[in-house]
Structures are given as C-alpha cells and as structure tokens.
TrEMBL record:
Membrane topology: Multi-pass membrane protein
PANTHER family per record: SHIKIMATE TRANSPORTER
Cross-referenced InterPro entries: MFS (IPR011701), MFS_dom (IPR020846), MFS_trans_sf (IPR036259), Sugar_transporter_CS (IPR005829)
Protein's UniProt name: MFS transporter
Major facilitator superfamily (MFS) profile domain segment(s): 24-437
Keywords: Cell membrane, Membrane, Transmembrane, Transmembrane helix, Transport
Cell compartment(s), UniProt: Cell membrane
Length: 458
C-alpha cells in the first residue's frame, strides 16, 4: 500500500479503559440516534404530508414522487462514504463524526422552515430535494465512523455487543421520529398538522444536534487510528487501495446489507405508514395509531438488535446472521397478511415480528464489517460497502413497493420482492468467512488483508 516511510516510533497509545469504552458506546448511541431521527423524520413526512405540500402539482403521481425523493438521498450516500472514508482513514474517525452530525442537523432544521409549493411554486420541491441530498451525504459518512469508534475501542470478545451501540441508533431514531409525530397528531387536528404541525419534529433537530455534538466532542479518537498515526502508516490513497484489492469483498458485503435494508425501509422509508393511512387505499387507517404501531415495532427492533450483537460474540457473526435471515424471511411472509386485516393490533404484531429478524441481521453488522477490512482502509471499506448496500436495498424500496402494488393490485408482489432481497442477503453471508475476534490493530495488517471471501483461497 502507498504509505509514508517515516521511522516507526517506539511508543504506542495506551489501551482503552472501561470508562473510555462506555463513553464511546454512549456517544455512538446518542449521535447515531440523532442522525437517524433526522433521516427518518423526512421519510415519515414524505409518506404523510410532502405529497400534498410539495408535490401537489403532480396529481396522482405525487406520492410516488415523494417516495422517490426519499430514495434520491441514497444515491449521494456513496459520495459521503467516499469523502468520510478518505478523511477518516487519513485524519481520524472522530472529526468526521462531528462534521456529519452538524451537516445532517442543519439540513433537517432547514426543511422545517421551507415554504411549500403553494407559496413559492417549483422552487419548494427543488429546495426540499437539495436538503435531502445533503442528508444523504451526511448519512453516507456517519455510519462507518460510528461503527469503528465503537468496535475499535471494544475488547475482542465483546465487539459484537459494543458494535451494536451505533446499530441501535437506527431503531432508536425511528422510535423517536415516529413517537414525536404520533404525539403531534394526538395533540393537533389534521388541518393544523398539515398546515404547520409537521414542521415541529424538523425544528426539534436543533436541540438534538446540540446534545449529540457535545457528547461526541468528549470521546477519545479510536485506538487503532491513534496507533496508525503514531506509526505513520495511514494510507495516502485508501479508496484506490480498497478497490484495487477488495472490490469483490465490497460488493458481497453490500449485497449482505441490501437484504436487510430493503425490508427495513418498509417502515423507515415510510411505505407502511402511507399504505395503511392512505384514504384512497384499501385500509384508510387513522394516522396516529399507525405511527404508534411503528413506534412499538421500533422498540422490538432495538431490543433484537442489541441482543444480536451480544449473541454474535458467543456463537459468531455469521451464525447469528443465518438465524436472522430465517427470522426475517418469516417476518416478510407474515407482514402483509397481518397488515391487510385492517386491524391495528394485528398490524402492530406484523411489524414487531418483522423487526425481530431485522434486528438479528443488523445487530452484528458493525463488528462483522469491521473484521472484514484491513486497519489502514477500514473506514473506507465499511462506509462504501454500507452506502452501496443502501442503494441496492433501501434506496427505492418504498418506490418499488408502491409501483408493484399499482401494477399488480396486490401486496403479494411486494412480499415476493422482499423475500427475494432476504435470500440475496443470505447468499451473500454464505460467501463470507466468519472472522469473529480477528485482531484489528495495524500489527496484524497482513492477516486482515487476506480475503474473507469463501470463493477465494485464503
């Protein structure tokens, strides 16, 4: 690899203490929760109000276009991942995390003050899309840094548990976003919610971003990056090295995440919320109870994610994933039969069953990904694999689901699509070796550089 050739110093950074690890775990939970709250608030609003306020001029296509804007941000996640990976491998994980948090919060707050289509015409949806793109760039850079801060601080036998810290930020962000929206719909009548109430969750991001920024600034840099910096072994061109040596691994890792992400975006992307509450649709349920159902399922998702991270330390990442894919497939097959009953209790049950499998295929991901890539290009590897997987999986999952129902008149087609994505994730997992517990420091770079792909000889 292209690295500097300065002499290697004799000193090494002190190992992370238990207090350091707990502080980092707390900081990654808080930071990723804030980031994903911001991201999911947009998706929920797209499902509930943006079609009426920003895309009303498109008539029957307004809902489809609103969901397209949810997916557009994913196309810019690789840009965020490329930038964050490059600077994170060169200058540190912590700096990138602080920057992405501020960027996401600023974009979210500005959405809360945007004029609507009726006020400024076509400029309204264009500005909305621009801010969503900024969110996508930020989200693309956020995950890799949070994962490495958590996993690289963790003791080898507890990486899965510590690595679950940034992972639970996703269900916590969904729980917070859905809960805030549900409370607002409970307090405000529909006309007030549509007029100005929807803006409140976006404006709340200002306070949340302040908390997240304060917490993240107080944590220490990753010990692995500290040692790379001391040894002057930071790669000058991490992206070039990544794709030159590990392009196949990036693709397989991306497909593994895509299998989870496509299914997860049935709720995080707002599809179920829109499908269940659409007054012109087959169910026409009230907005409030559906949002409370999503909030309950986010709690189940959080719990299963945390448990999966801990379990992966005991039985291995790959084995935990395999159990998760089977559970996720069962959840996919049960989802729409329960949702289509029109009973809010059964809808809640369907979402909760689904999130058990989602948690089992998401909780071990941080540690699994971190153990796949060499230390000097690890930030680039995990960030870009994640971003590409998000494009293949969740980017347009709500849009695809909407188009499938429109074309076939039945949610069975959506079930087949989600089951297919789950099987793709399962196959991708089978193609990877389990590297649970592999040393992560720069002393073991040659061991880490051996391909974990099962169709390549070690």
């Amino acid at each position: 690899m292209s690295k500097s050739v300065l002499p290697e110093p004799s000193s090494s950074p002190p190992p992370a203490t238990t207090s350091d690890r707990r502080r980092v775990a707390f900081a990654t939970v808080v930071g990723t929760t804030v980031e994903w709250y911001d991201f999911f608030i947009y998706a929920s609003a797209a499902a509930l109000v943006f079609d009426q306020l920003f895309f009303a001029g498109l008539g029957a296509n307004s809902t489809l276009v609103a969901f397209v804007t949810v997916g557009v941000s994913f196309l810019f996640r690789p840009l965020g991942a490329f930038l964050a990976g490059h600077f994170g491998d060169r200058y540190g994980r912590r700096r990138v995390l602080v920057l992405t948090l501020i960027l996401m919060g600023a974009a979210t707050t500005l959405v809360g003050v945007l004029p609507t289509f009726d006020q400024i015409g076509i400029a309204a949806p264009l500005l909305l899309i621009l801010l969503r793109i900024v969110q996508g760039v930020s989200a693309g850079g956020e995950w890799g840094g949070a994962v490495l801060m958590a996993v690289e601080h963790a003791p080898p036998k507890r990486r899965g548990l510590y690595g679950a810290s940034p992972q639970i930020g996703v269900p916590l962000g969904l729980l917070l976003a859905s809960g805030v929206l549900a409370l607002i719909t409970l307090v405000l009548p529909d006309d007030a919610f549509l007029s100005w109430g929807w803006r409140i969750p976006f404006l709340l991001s200002v306070a949340l971003i302040g908390v997240g920024h304060y917490v993240r600034r107080r944590v220490e840099e990753s010990p692995v990056f500290k040692e790379l910096a001391i040894r002057r072994e930071r790669t000058r061109t991490p992206l070039v090295q990544l794709f030159r040596r590990h392009s196949g691994l990036v693709l397989v890792a991306a497909l593994m995440f895509a299998g989870n992400n496509a299914v997860g975006y049935m709720t995080t992307g707002g599809y179920i919320q829109n499908y269940a509450t659409d007054p012109q649709g087959p169910l026409g349920l009230d907005r409030g109870p559906v949002l409370w159902a999503v909030t309950a399922s986010a709690a189940t998702w959080l719990l299963s994610t945390w448990i999966a991270g801990a379990v992966s330390d005991r039985i291995g990442r790959r084995r935990t994933y395999m159990i998760g894919w089977l559970a996720q497939l069962a959840g996919v097959l049960a989802l729409f039969p329960l949702v289509n009953t029109g009973d809010i209790g059964l809808l809640t049950l369907g979402l909760m069953i689904l999130t058990i499998g989602l948690g089992l295929t998401y909780g071990p991901q941080a540690s699994f990904y971190a153990e796949l890539f060499p230390a000097s290009i690890r930030f680039s590897g995990v960030s870009i694999s994640y971003a590409i997987g998000a494009i293949i999986g969740g980017a347009f999952a709500p849009t695809i689901a909407t188009a499938l129902v429109s074309a076939t008149g039945t949610t069975t087609s959506v079930m087949v699509y989600l089951a297919g994505m789950t099987v793709i994730g399962l196959i991708a997992t089978l193609l990877l070796r389990d590297r649970t517990g592999i040393p992560l420091g720069p002393d073991h770079e040659s061991e880490q550089a051996v391909s974990p792909l099962r169709f390549r000889k070690p």
